[in-house]
Amino acid sequence: MRRQIKYPLLAITIALAMRLYSTLISGMPFSTDAWPPIRNSELILQNTPINLDDKIFDGYHNYWPANSIFGAATSLLTSLRPMDSITLFSVGKGISGTIILFTRAQQRHSRMF
Q1: What are the backbone dihedrals phi and psi of residue 48, each rounded to the nearest 5 degrees, phi first?
Q2: pLDDT tens track for 75-107
Q3: Cα separation of 29 and 34, whole Å?
């Protein structure tokens, strides 16, 4: 395998394994920050259509609804509970930062030499 592909693929694999390991062992989300979007996703699914300023939400996490809407949409598409869909599919969102970092580093490194 070419060196240009081998190292980023290794980094992506390690990032994916690190995030999935705790999830697969415990069955719980990777981060404690996931609980409010999980709750909001469940509320969106139970009360749709709903205004995002509704008093049913906690009044804090509904000001950036992308995670909650993402959780509700993936839950509907996969027929999983919001907790399971956010837990599994947020890993892909998380490792995308690693992919971008390695791509940019490789581009910068190739221009230097």
Answers
A1: -70, 140
A2: 999 999 988 888 878 777 767 777 788 778 877
A3: 6
